[in-house]
């Protein structure tokens, strides 16, 4: 097992998916349709490949926690529904992997909270992501009763944080200082 090779693969694939020139939702409708008809959404194909390769790591997955949490989060925040549905379950697998090794998933939890703040501040994330994140992780947790209550607490924590971060991002352009201050206090 060559850790550096796998690490390079995942980072390169995520860098490819997240490059600005592939963010189709930022293009005009005509340009979006032209690219879709000619090339399809390459982000989806690479995202599925990342997912498949993640599951092939076997017991070596633990080597990528928490290091790959940020890149995977960045990928799942791309506003493409099928990509999100395919890649959000990687988070549950990371939690399960760390839980099986240590009895908790604090490294994963701390890393995702840290990176989520950075990503939402950078303009990524939306209400739909929050709902999909919650439903997918809770569905995965139902299949593992031993970790279900921990996942439920984690999802509640992340959902609350994401709601506050999205509110904060929305009011930053607001003229009212009171709204901004109130949102900042809620976030803190």
From TrEMBL:
> What domain of life does the UniProt record list for this protein's source?
Eukaryota
Record GO cellular component, one term: cytoplasm
> What GO MF terms are annotated?
guanyl-nucleotide exchange factor activity; small GTPase binding
Q: Which GO terms describe its biological process?
A: cell migration; myoblast fusion; small GTPase-mediated signal transduction
Pfam families hit by this protein:
TPR_DOCK
Q: Please report the stretch or stretches of sequence annotated as the Dedicator of cytokinesis TPR repeats region domain.
A: 1-136
Q: What is this protein called?
A: DOCK2 protein
From which source organism is this entry? Melanocharis versteri (Fan-tailed berrypecker)
């Amino acid at each position: 097992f060559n850790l550096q090779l796998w690490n390079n693969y995942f980072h390169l694939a995520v860098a490819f998916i997240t490059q600005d020139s592939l963010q189709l939702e930022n293009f005009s409708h005509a340009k979006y349709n032209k690219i879709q008809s000619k090339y399809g959404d390459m982000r989806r194909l690479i995202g599925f490949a990342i997912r498949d390769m993640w599951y092939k790591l076997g017991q070596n997955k633990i080597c990528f926690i928490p290091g790959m949490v940020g890149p995977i989060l960045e990928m799942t925040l791309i506003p493409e529904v099928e990509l999100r549905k395919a890649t959000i379950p990687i988070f549950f697998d990371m939690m399960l992997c760390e839980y099986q090794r240590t009895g908790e998933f604090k490294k994963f939890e701390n890393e995702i909270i840290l990176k989520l703040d950075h990503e939402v501040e950078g303009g990524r994330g939306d209400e739909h992501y929050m709902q999909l994140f919650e439903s997918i992780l809770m569905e995965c947790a139902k299949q593992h009763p031993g970790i279900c209550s921990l996942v439920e607490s984690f999802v509640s924590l992340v959902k609350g944080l994401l709601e506050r971060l999205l509110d904060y991002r929305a009011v930053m352009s607001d003229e009212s200082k009171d709204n901004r201050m109130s949102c900042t206090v809620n976030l803190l």
